[in-house]
Amino acid sequence: MEDISTQQKIKKAALKEFAHYGLEGARVDRIAQKAKINKAMIYYHFKSKEDLYESILTEFYREIVPGVTADLPKDKGPDVQLEAIVTFFIDFIGGVDQDLIRMMLRELSSGGKYFKKLMLPNVIIPMMGVVQELFTAGMKQGTFKKIVPHLTFIQMLGSIVFTNAIRITLSDTDLGKMIFNEDFFEEYKKNLLTVVKTGILAP
């Protein structure tokens, strides 16, 4: 039990460090200070700074696909399933620690080594399979217009992630406070679903 508690303390402190400095700029000394533990304890639980970084991202990415598939109403039509996927991603990204979004943005801006290593196999590739099947079935049934499934998925996911990046960036401005109010996520969800449905649902 103590090991789990210590690991979580380390990860929480490391998340803040990586979010603000990236992998290259992060310092194990500062992580130990933030976690209020001895630096040696970090190396007891994690082989290296890189191992700690990878552990945080892996834990985050591995929650996504099981969350999508668990909530997917497979007895419903492709349009209802699509709505469930969009809703899950908005709720999930909106509910995570904002430092995780900052960490992801820093990771992408530095070349995305761990994004490719971890997000591709854990999120992008399995989700491509889910949406390929979903969109193909929808087009065959006449529910969806002719679309390119993988591009449509990337565009939807990109919109959700980028919107949350903008939310974090503008949160301390007057415009940010006006747009990203307490009703933002519900309004954004309804609006994105309207845009998606208008764009791909067959008339």
Describe the structure.
This protein is mainly α and 203 residues long. Helices cover 81% and strands 0% of the residues. The protein has helices at residues 2-25, 28-35, 39-45, 49-61, 64-71, 78-95, 98-109, 113-141, 149-170, 174-179, 184-200. Helix 1 runs antiparallel to helix 2 (28-35) and helix 6 (78-95) packs parallel to helix 9 (149-170). The chain is globular, with a radius of gyration of 19 Å. It starts with a helix and ends with a helix. The model has no long low-confidence stretch (mean pLDDT 91).
Fraction of residues in β-strands: under 5%
The succession of helices and strands, N to C, reads HHHHHHHHHHH
The low-confidence parts are: none
Count of helical segments?
A: 11
- The total beta strand count reads 0
Q: What multimeric state do the chains show? A: single chain
Work out the helicity level.
over 70%
Biggest sheet architecture: none
> What best-fitting shape do the alpha-carbon axes yield?
globular
Question: Between the first and last Cα atoms, what is the distance in angstroms?
Answer: 57 Å
Average per-residue pLDDT, rounded, comes to 91
Outline:
By secondary structure, the protein is mainly α. It has helices at residues 2-25, 28-35, 39-45, 49-61, 64-71, 78-95, 98-109, 113-141, 149-170, 174-179, 184-200.
List the helices and strands and how they pair.
Elements: H1 2-25, H2 28-35, H3 39-45, H4 49-61, H5 64-71, H6 78-95, H7 98-109, H8 113-141, H9 149-170, H10 174-179, H11 184-200
Helix pairs in contact: 1-2, 1-4, 1-7, 4-8, 5-6, 6-8, 6-9, 6-11, 7-9
